[in-house]
Amino acid sequence: MSSVMKRIARISAWLLLVCVVILLFSGWGITQTGTIYNLTFGLVDRRLANSIHSAAVLPLAFFFLLHVLINIRLSITSRRRYFVWLTNGVLIAIGVCILGLVVYMEYFLKGG
Ligand code: HEM
Known about the structure:
mainly alpha
């Protein structure tokens, strides 16, 4: 089981890195529109950069939580069954709450 989790933590790490790079460049597409517009040969204007930037938040949050929470879980070596169950439950609850908050902020909360 832990080798499968380690594999998921590593795959999500690289996908997380891709999301961070996309978020960074699309963010510059909003603040440094001319530079990114020229860099992408006129493909990415401010509107598209804004859409990409918003769309990248949820996958970034998902892969970040997967990568970090699994690595925290793998760093816990206790074999006591109740402690393992408690840890799994708490980490899953943290992940679901944070992901729920991101979904609410991104897709349900009207802009302030
Ligand atoms: C944006 C933030 C982060 C990015 C982009 C990221 C990316 C990566 C990458 C690319 C690897 C190498 C995966 C491989 O060996 O194939 C890695 C490994 C690792 N990361 Fe992160 N990471 C981030 C945040 C964190 C945080 C906050 C923690 C702390 C809990 C963490 C814990 C680890 C651990 C323990 C490993 C080694 C896992 C192993 O040996 O399999 N990372 N990370």
